[in-house]
Amino acid sequence: MSDSGGETGGLAEGTLVSHLLELRDRLMKAGLAVAICFIPCAYYMKDLFSFVAQPLVHKLPAGATLIATSVVAPFTVPFKLALVAAVGIAIPVVLYQAWAFVAPGLYRHEKKLAIPLLISSVLLFYIGAAFAYFLVFPVMLSFFVATTPAGVQMMTDMGSYLDFVMILLLAFGVAFEVPVATVLLVWTGFVRISTLTKNRGFVLLGIFIIAAFLTPPDAVSQSFMAVPMYFLYEIGIVMAKLLLKDKLAARAKEDEAERGAGV
After folding, report:
1. What distance in Å separates the CA atoms of residue 178 and residue 180, rounded to the nearest whole number?
2. Rounded distance, CA 234 to CA 228, Å?
3. CA angle at residue 26 from 183 to 87, to 5 degrees?
């Protein structure tokens, strides 16, 4: 009896150690990917910051520029941007390592669903960030510059501007994950398709409220986030119907059987 218990405990301990070793390897590979991406980003960090600053610099009045209110800011701010950019570029590798770690514990049908969700989540995040930079920033910054009171010279600190940009890029990137979130909610059974379709009005109101918190306090920025979010919500419903067709059909049969038993 004691030998059997010791053997079982040894197997469990060996399994735990193997999982920890694999986790360490996955984390090291993810960290290596970030480090590799960081090298070129750090080398071109000044050019990278100039690229990020373009939407504001092009809208500033003649003679106005970004300023540095700290002695070390001209170095630390571009360095911070280079690090964030490296993480953003390496995200596909990082997510792949996370996927490779958890995939052995998933069923075959779960793997088939998880792969397109993983790929689409990465693409949607990049699309959301690009949408914010190329479409939202020019309009939003034009509005802020145009509303500067007379007698006030707009002199934005480069560190504050970078924080502002990163927050909005992250907000739009996450906002564009709505289709993935919708599919996951339906997949887990937390929400039904019928509930999502019947409560469109409440969802639209909630999206505008969320956009008001995530964007600067102006209607233009709020609309630029809320309208695509609602459009992506509708796409999420369509994706859920297509990807979860078999699962939804099985749930419908279960509900019909329960109603029949109740009668």
Report:
1. 5
2. 10
3. 70
State the pTM of this model: 0.81
Kindly report the backbone phi and psi dihedral angles of residue 157, in degrees, each rounded to the nearest multiple of 5, phi listed first.
-70, 135
CB atoms within 10 A of CB 152: 7
Local confidence pLDDT in tens for the 263 residues of the chain: 445 555 555 555 667 788 788 889 999 999 999 999 999 999 999 999 999 999 999 988 877 889 999 999 999 999 999 999 999 999 999 988 988 888 877 777 777 778 888 888 899 999 999 999 999 898 888 888 888 888 888 889 999 999 999 999 999 998 898 898 888 888 877 888 888 888 888 888 999 898 888 787 777 778 888 999 999 999 989 988 887 787 777 777 776 766 666 55
Give CA–CA dist 241/223, Å, rounded.
Answer: 27
Lookup: tokens for 75: 């170095």
Domain residues of the chain, as ranges?
A: 8-148, 177-263
